[in-house]
Amino acid sequence: MALVSLKDTYPDYRSTFSDNSLSHIDEYSVYADGDDKVGSVDDGLFDDTTGQFRYLVVDTGSWIFGKKVLLPIGRAQFDNAQQRVNVNGLTKSQVEDLPKYSGSKTVDYDHEENVRGVYREAAVGQSAPVEGAAYTRDTYSYDRDADLYDMPETSDRNQPIRLYEERLIADKNRAKTGDVTIGKRVETETANVSIPVEKERVVIERSTPTGASTATMGQTPEHAFEDGEVARMEVYEETANVRKEAFVREEVNVRKEVEQETVNKQATVRREELDVDSADGTTVVNR
Predict the structure, then answer these.
(1) Under 8 Å between Cβ of 56 and 47
(2) Where are the residues of the annotated region Disordered (predicted)?
């Protein structure tokens, strides 16, 4: 059996103890008799075997020499509205007499006895027991000091018992699953085109006149028997002229479509049920 730190054991203690004042334990100030502020709550200690809460760790800061001391949980009266812990019957001077707390590993039986001695003296009509008179190191039980270690009752005695159950909370994560790259490439091929072309050629036809043609009146025609050009004719031909021209062959639209599907997931959830047991079997319980 050992005492362990609340904050060290439950780093996420604010969520773990969200239903009670322990979730904001380090926001409470501690006041002794006479409304004297003696420090603020820094941490808590509980029994690692039974889970019972035993002490609040009080940082006295600049109020009392800057040391940390232990406050038995049974003496802490929580005022949640003002975030105060009142310690009735304890004076500022008695807080000064409390042994210095240096970590849960340093809290042994002797340290706790010194702490209990101060609080027993603070209680009216009680004094610190002598070692060996009523119990020993091996026989001591926290039940002997119930007023020091019993958790204080809240002012609301009709506070309900909370029964919890777990529920599945559905959520979605969006993750990238791939890339689609769309590009163009140029392919070449040999194309054939037929173009009819025309070529002119000169045709010379010779013929013999059907009737005799003689010079008129015995005269010789002009330009007869002259050398040189007697006619000119222009000759043309067509040649094929092939050029390339780009035009829109096809249009492509790129878009995304979302398809929906239902995914079923299973998990085991827990639920608390209330068990009511009448020990003697005769007590009437109105459910």
Answers:
(1) no
(2) 258-287
Q: Which residues contact 146 (CB under 8 A, 6 or more apart)?
A: 74
Rounded distance, CA 49 to CA 72, Å?
18
Query: From start to end of the chain, where are the E strands?
Result: 3-5, 29-32, 36-47, 53-59, 68-72, 77-79, 84-86
CATH of 3-149, one of 2.40.128.630, 2.40.128.110, 3.40.50.2300, 3.90.50.10: 3.90.50.10
The strand pairing partners of 85, in sequence order, are 30, 78
Q: Which residue has the tokens 């609340």?
A: 6
* Number of neighbours of residue 269 by Cβ within 10 angstroms: 8
Looking at the DSSP bridge assignments, the partners of residue 29 are 40, 84
Question: CA nearest 71: which of 37, 119, 120?
Answer: 119
26 SS3 class? helix
Q: What sign does the CA torsion over 6, 8, 12, 14 have?
A: positive
- Name 72's bridge partners: 55
Taking the C-alpha atoms of residue 32 and residue 90, their distance in angstroms, rounded to an integer, is 6
Q: Where are the domains of the chain?
A: 3-149
Give the model's pLDDT for residue 128.
45
The radius of gyration of the chain from alpha carbons, rounded to an integer in Å, stands at 56
Percent of the chain past pLDDT 70, that is, above it, reads 82
Q: What is the pLDDT of residues 128-145, one digit of tens each?
A: 444 445 788 888 888 888
DSSP helix/strand/coil, 45: strand
Task: Kindly report, residue by residue over 82-129, the tens digit of the pLDDT.
Answer: 889 999 888 888 888 899 998 888 899 999 999 998 988 876 544 444
Q: Cα–Cα–Cα angle for 130, 96, 106, nearest 5°?
A: 65
